[in-house]
Design a protein that fits this description.
Layout (H helix, E strand, L loop, with lengths): L12 E10 L5 H12 L2 E7 L2 E8 L1 H14 L5 E10 L7 E3 L20 H7 L43 H8 L20 E5 L2 E4 H13 L4 E4 L4 E6 L3 H11 L7 E3 L3 H5 L6 H8 L5 E5 L15 E5 L4 H7 L7 E5 L11 H7 L6 E5 L11 E5 L2 E6 L9 E2 L7 E3 L9 E4 L2 E4 L9 H18 L5 E5 L5 H13 L2 E5 L1 H12 L6 E11 L5 E9 L4 E7 L2 E2 L4 H5 L1 H11 L8 H5 L2 H13 L5 E4 H11 L11 H9 L10 E5 L2 E5 L1 H12 L4 H27 L3 E5 L6 H13 L3 E4 L10 H13 L1
Parallel strand pairs: 2-5, 8-14, 10-12, 11-15, 18-21, 21-22, 23-30, 24-27, 25-29, 30-31
Antiparallel strand pairs: 1-3, 1-4, 2-3, 6-7, 6-14, 8-9, 9-13, 10-13, 11-12, 15-16, 17-20, 18-19, 19-20, 23-24, 24-25, 26-27, 28-29
The structure holds zinc ion (2 copies) and fe (iii) ion.
One zinc ion binds next to helix 4.
Length: 764
């Protein structure tokens, strides 16, 4: 034990150090114990609801050094929000001990997300003398699977999918030794006692190193391999082989979305994308999300991300990834989610072998079960800091910590990019990305995830929140659940929820001016909203400005076919006979049908949606007339934009206090530019400038009228870098303060947080 026993007590001091933040389930108490030993500190440490309390006793210099080291040497995934120090009388403790937790009944349980493999484990993985040399399930107190293997609480091995593997003598000794870096590492394992990999390729089966070697052979030969990871399956192929990537796309069906790339070395990545310092930090940290980075022309196959100017890149985060990518023949692998776009992520061996049979040539499996699926997270580094676009692996189930107590609310989220949110006081547990709630499969998966999170956090909601849209599957689920449990269900307007999420993330006092721009959301008047300025508080809002309505002939079909909306805009300006490709190529008989639908108002919902405007311009300039996936045409428009100056004309009119933003004149000028043979990139950038100017002007007018100086921006359109940078710049120039999403996605993945905040504000 520490040398403290022999010290005299005369100079000794004792301090109570309370640390709040993410300090439980992340190896924090063993860390404190080791740090105390290092500095010759005696005393105690215990968990309490909301943090840890340390009583540290020793020489004044030693106590000071101990406190100073806390934030510097904390475990990689711990997050210290606050440290308070209180003087206590010295007690003459002889040693440092971990004492039992003092959790108030009903205290929030914090569970750790899955953590990327740490450098210590990486060293052991490639050390021929280590007993875990090339063992694909190496992990320690600081790294490895967590959330995805938890079946129930407390987080102990028998409550995880590691239960079937009983530790060998060696592993058990590590697990029990507080000085060992595997002390209480629940997934601790080795080749003798732990999980194994297996490769299945046609009739062949092999395991251990041979399986990994075979998988590398297949990948290097241009084959597609389904690889079981932490929270689900990836479909992998050689990212430098155009044939392999095209074959993967062909087998996945209509799939055209950008595919993520994994590479081990940052130098390698540098050869195909622009690596910023911020990006390097994200790529080498404990979370290791997919990071969106500007492409370079390189050896990467063109069909990896044909529509985008970004690649989504990540570094290996499991030992298995490291082993696969250690081979020189595989400098970069496509690693895309192992599912069809309309299905949830495959997590079970049999399920994957069934559902992915027509896509994968081989399956690299293992026998550690995935309890709950969790996709890769996606982060975009921006001039305004990193923004989480998809919050899943590495983040979930850590809460978003709020300034206000929300009580216990379950918010079920929206329809696309669904996540849900369970709150417990000031902790908002935003779920992992679930996907689009279009079908029964995904809805089942969603319900399973809701139940799982309630179970492992031991949180029973007292209030249910859902979207205002009466037909969303999530709304139906919420109402059913509320009825079953005798709870209130609160319907929250989509864009109000967006703004409230952004407000909550920044603990804004309100009211704020909310600028909500996205594809679609059900409006309070039954129309489709999507480009709105809302005077927002947590409990309520007033609509102050919106984009001019256009009819969407065919409803959903008009969303998938941007050419329809482009035709509507041109028709309004009398431009359908302009001498441009769009008009020459227009399917006139189909348009006449749509025109009749508009005249008779048959299946023509009105929309004030930014997404539809972006798509319409994309179709007009000839980039994309029918979307293969949500947001494709808008993404292509952003990708096309070059550097150019200039803004098109627009109008902002006012009636009954409501501002209406009209881009009609812009279409006249775009058509003129097209007739003059102007470049698509130039038109695209001018369109973006115009959008920013128009929405910015409207916001400034509302700000002047109301005296509100704080702006919150939310909605999927803020994934667009030109808007994300342009709009805040314009608004801060005139002295307004701008809040943007950082910790939670600006798209519908952040919606549930806003729903929870609004429902709670209305109810309490
Ligand atoms: Zn480790
Ligand atoms: Zn073992
Ligand atoms: Fe939205």
């Amino acid at each position: 034990m520490a040398k403290a026993t022999t010290l005299t007590t005369d100079r000794r001091i004792r301090r109570e150090i309370t640390i709040t933040g993410i300090v439980q389930g992340v190896g924090f108490r063993p860390f404190i114990h080791r740090l105390a030993q290092k500095h010759g500190i005696a005393g105690t440490v215990h968990n309490f609801t909301g943090g840890v309390v340390i009583e540290a006793e020793g020489q004044p210099e030693a106590v000071a050094a101990f406190i100073g080291d806390l934030p510097r040497e904390k475990p990689p995934i711990a997050r210290i929000d606050d440290i308070t120090v209180v003087e206590l009388p010295a007690l003459g403790d002889a040693e440092f001990v971990i004492t039992p937790s003092r959790e108030a009944a009903g205290g929030t349980i914090l569970l750790s997300p899955d953590v990327a493999m740490c450098d210590d484990c990486l060293r052991e993985l490639f050390d021929p003398d280590d007993r875990r040399y090339r063992y694909p399930f190496i992990n320690c107190t600081n790294c490895g699977p967590r959330f995805t293997i938890i079946q129930s609480v407390p987080y102990d091995r028998p409550n995880t999918t590691m239960r079937p593997f009983s530790m060998c003598r060696h592993c058990q000794a590590e697990y029990d030794d507080i000085g060992d870096r595997r002390y209480h590492a629940q997934p601790n394992a080795c080749p003798v006692c732990g999980p194994e990999v297996e490769l299945i390729f046609g009739d062949e089966r092999c395991s251990a190193d041979e399986a990994i070697e075979q998988a590398i052979e297949l990948l290097a030969a241009g084959k597609i391999v389904a690889i079981k990871g932490l929270g689900g399956f990836h479909l992998a192929c050689d990212a430098t082989s155009q044939d392999a990537v095209q074959e993967l796309r062909r087998r996945k069906g209509r799939e055209e979305k950008p595919l993520a790339i994994m590479s081990t070395s940052l130098e390698e990545m540098e050869s195909y994308c622009h690596l910023t310092e911020e990006a390097q930090e994200l790529l080498t940290g404990a979370i290791r999300p997919i990071v969106l980075l500007k492409k370079r022309t390189s050896v990467i196959a063109p069909s990896v991300a044909p529509d985008s100017k970004y690649y989504g890149v990540m570094t290996p985060y499991t030992p298995l990834h490291h082993l696969l990518l250690a081979d020189d023949r595989l400098p970069a692998l496509v690693m895309t989610s192992g599912n069809l776009s309309e299905e949830p992520l495959a997590t079970q061996n049999d399920e994957a072998r069934g559902r992915l049979a027509h896509i994968a040539d081989g399956f690299l499996l293992h026998d550690r079960e995935i309890e709950i699926g969790c996709d890769d997270s996606v982060v975009r580094p921006t001039k305004l800091g990193p923004i989480v676009m998809r919050r899943a692996r590495g983040y979930v189930p850590f809460p978003v910590t709020l300034k206000r107590d929300l009580g216990r609310v379950l918010a079920v989220g929206g329809h696309l990019k669904n996540t849900f949110c369970l709150t417990d006081g000031r902790n908002a547990f935003l779920s992992q990305h679930i996907g689009d709630l279009e079908d029964a499969n995904t809805l089942d998966y969603f319900q399973w995830c809701v139940d799982h999170l309630q179970d492992v956090l031991r949180v029973e909601p007292e209030l249910i929140a859902h979207d205002l849209h009466p037909d969303y599957l999530s709304s139906h689920y919420a109402q059913r659940l509320a009825e079953e449990r005798g709870l209130d269900a609160v319907a929250v307007q989509h864009h109000h929820a967006h703004i409230a999420a952004c407000m909550a993330e920044h603990a804004a006092v309100g009211p704020v001016l909310g600028i909500a721009c996205d594809g679609t959301g059900y409006g309070a008047d039954g129309t489709v909203w999507g480009c709105e300025i809302l005077l927002s508080d947590y409990d309520d809002y007033t609509r102050a400005a919106h984009l001019e309505y256009v009819p969407l002939p065919g409803g959903e079909q008009a969303i998938k076919e941007p050419w329809r909306v482009a035709a509507v805009y041109l028709h309004r300006q009398g431009l359908l006979d302009a001498d441009i490709d769009f008009c020459h190529n227009l399917d006139r008989p189909r348009w006449r049908l749509l025109e009749q639908m508009i005249e008779k108002n048959i299946n023509c919902p009105s929309a004030s949606s930014a997404g539809r405007l972006f798509s319409a311009v994309s179709a007009l300039v000839g980039l994309r007339s029918v979307d293969a996936y949500e947001g494709q045409s808008a993404m292509m428009l952003e990708a096309a934009a070059t550097d150019a100056e200039g803004v098109y004309s627009y109008e902002i009119t006012e009636s009954d206090g409501m501002l209406v933003m009209s881009p009609g004149l812009m279409f006249v000028e775009i058509v003129a530019d097209l007739e003059a043979g102007k470049d698509t990139g130039e038109i695209s950038v001018r369109f973006h400038n115009t959008f920013v100017a128009m929405v910015g002007d409207a916001a400034v007018r509302v700000a002047k009228k109301t005296g509100i100086k704080q702006i919150a921006m939310s909605g999927g359109t803020f994934q667009n870098e030109l808007v994300l940078h342009g709009l805040p710049q314009r608004l801060t120039e005139v002295g307004l303060e701008v809040l943007i999403h950082q910790e939670t996605p600006p798209n519908d993945g952040g919606l549930a947080l806003g729903q929870a905040v609004v429902a709670s504000a209305r109810n309490y």
